[in-house]
Amino acid sequence: MYFPHAQQALKKRSFLHILGVDLGGGKGKKTAVATLRIGPSDGGATVTDIAPRTGALPLYDTTLLGLLGGFGDGTLICVDAPLTLPPCLRCQVPVCPGQEHCVDAAVLEMRRIADVAGSTGHRDLRRGKPSITPYTQRTTEVHLFYDRGLAPREGLGQGTGPLAARAAHLTRALADRFRLNDNLIEVSPKATLTALGFLRPYKKHLHERQTRAAILEALAPNLRFGPGVWREACVQNDHLFDAVICAFTGYLWARDGWMERDSASPMLRGDGWIWVPPAAAGDAPGNRGGNPTESNGVRFASAKN
């Protein structure tokens, strides 16, 4: 099975453990963590643990931080939640000059991406929608939406505020050992699966469990489940499933040395980045023979360019 490699790699990243975190609210019960152990000589990744197990307490902050901090060096954490704030919320200018006159590097890049999309007649812009909202969006979300056709949750979109606040707290609490885009990355399981060609809904759908099972089966050559970790638990629970996909995204990121797109300015790195499999012209797990197909109940399509 093929997974797209970046055309250029800064370096091959090496980790022993990769932790995928499907982050929920601080007072809720929806946070899940999956642990991958990386095999020697790119022998793939093995799920060695999932949490919480049936009957275990929810992963509130103290428990979650204890779990994440209990791993030694050589650990990568991949979080499905905004790890940085939108540019308007980071801005230090006392009086906003308005979006049209803003000179913040992130806002300028967002406007550039939206202007290019507008010149090509993007459907949403024809409807009169605002092209960007830099108080809820970051450059990475604008890029993924207009340039890749992917729609991850916005940094401070509807219902994301409490989640973003918890993610900011966890980022600071882990800052003594984990640094953004070094051994701590932001991911989106939905965007990862879409980029890999898995298009059928795997949550809140009549056949969601069959779809999750089919996806895990398709990933099996690169993603295995170790002793005592039942794949069926991830089929039954979408939060555990998302945690596994978060960790698998980190595995691909480390293995293939993904980079930000070539036009990304170093000034934008403080704006945050959602890491998604790069666009590829070649085959992908969901693309067989160059045409969309059906396999194990999951619709496949080629990755976008």
Q: Can you describe this structure?
A:
The protein is an alpha/beta fold. It has a single domain (17-86, 155-300), classed as Nucleotidyltransferase, domain 5. It is 32% helix and 13% strand. The protein is built from ten helices and nine strands. The chain has helices at residues 61-69, 87-90, 105-119, 123-126, 139-148, 161-173, 189-195, 208-219, 231-236, 238-256; strands at 17-22, 32-38, 45-51, 75-79, 184-187, 223-225, 274-275, 293-295, 298-300. The strands form two sheets. It has a seven-stranded mixed β-sheet. Helix 3 runs parallel beside helix 5 and helix 7 packs across helix 10. The protein is globular.
String of helices and strands: EEEHEHHHHHEHHEHHEEE
Q: Largest sheet, described in full?
A: 7 strands, mixed
What topology, given as strand order, has the largest sheet? Answer: 6-3-2-1-4-5-7
**DSSP summary: helix tally:** 10
- Helix fraction, binned, reads 25-40%
Strand content: 5-15%
- What is the C-level CATH assignment? Alpha Beta
What is the number of independent domains?
1
Integer-rounded radius of gyration: 19 Å
Task: List how many beta strands DSSP finds.
Answer: 9
As for the CATH topology, it is Nucleotidyltransferase, domain 5
* CATH architecture level-2 label: 2-Layer Sandwich
Mean pLDDT score: 84
Shape, please?
globular
pLDDT < 50 runs, ≥5 residues? 1-10, 281-305
How far is the first residue's CA from the last residue's CA?
Answer: 19 Å
Counting helices, strands and paired strands, the structural category is: alpha/beta
